[in-house]
Amino acid sequence: MFAQVLKRGxxxxxxxxxxxxxxxxxxxxxxxxxxKMLYHPQINRFKRSANPENEGIRSLVPETGVIQLIDIxxxxxxxxxxxxxxxxxxxxxxxxxxxxxxxxxxxEGNPAGDPAVTCKIxxxxxxxxxxxxxxxxxxxxxxENAEPEASQANESAPPLELLDKESIRKExxxxxxxxAQKKAEARAKRKAGKELNKxxxxxxVKSVSLSWTIGPHDLHSQKKSSIESWLSKGHTVQIVLGRDxxxxxxxxxxxxxxxxxxxxxxxxxxxxxxGGIEQGMEGDISTSIILTFAPSSN
Length: 298
Hints:
Helices cover 47% and strands 18% of the residues. By secondary structure, the protein is α/β, with parallel strands linked by helices. It folds into 3 domains: 1-44, no CATH class; 45-126, no CATH class; 205-295, Translation Initiation Factor IF3 (2-Layer Sandwich). The strands form 2 sheets. A 4-stranded mixed sheet has the order 2-1-4-3. Strands 5-6-8-7 form a 4-stranded mixed sheet, with helices on one face. A hairpin with a 5-residue loop joins strand 1 (66-70) and strand 2 (76-81). Helix 8 (216-232) runs parallel beside helix 9. The chain is elongated and about 140 Å long. Residues 1-27 and 38-50 have low confidence and may be disordered.
């Protein structure tokens, strides 16, 4: 009876000892001795990781054989003892056959040559941490408690009104018109503020320096736009003619004086066309003069 119980997973020496003891004198073995033999690590080496995969490996590889191992980190380890691998399996891990073959044996039945069986260690189950499992359980419980309240709230809520496409189109149009109106009002406020700043700002004196040698064409093309802009903004404009006196020391002949008078007349006409009113002339025509023009609004 004991021989049949201990047939699988018991080494040859222990099997022979137990078989002999049971056949000759079963009374000679106490229950304590039998229990120690049953749970001896060497006798029970295959019971620690007993599963169908391990039984399949034992049919391919002898108990004392070696295998080619692919560990849990996917690293290849050649010629590893099968017994050591099964002993070192952790909880949640199992050994499976990756490449089925037969272990080469010598004439006496002992393993010989390179092993032909490749096995790998895999995780049979994913264990969750206690805190994470408790948190997930609490979330599930919270969802279960919230479902009746949500259903009651949905039942007590009034039914939603269905809107047709025409009403939605009218509402979108109304919102677009309202946004356009707000943008126009903001634009008008900004423009009014700019105009107010122009009118209420302090009047400044703008100065334009001209040489006695400038011609009428250059006067209109280079200075007319600036003078018109300043006068329209309410600034006083001063036109300085002949500021560089050292350049004009030899320009006092009758012909040069006539040219100077023509330039002064052109400056007056340009400022009057731009809306300016002459306030007076200072200086000497032989050296330099200053023409002052104020805006017509003043």
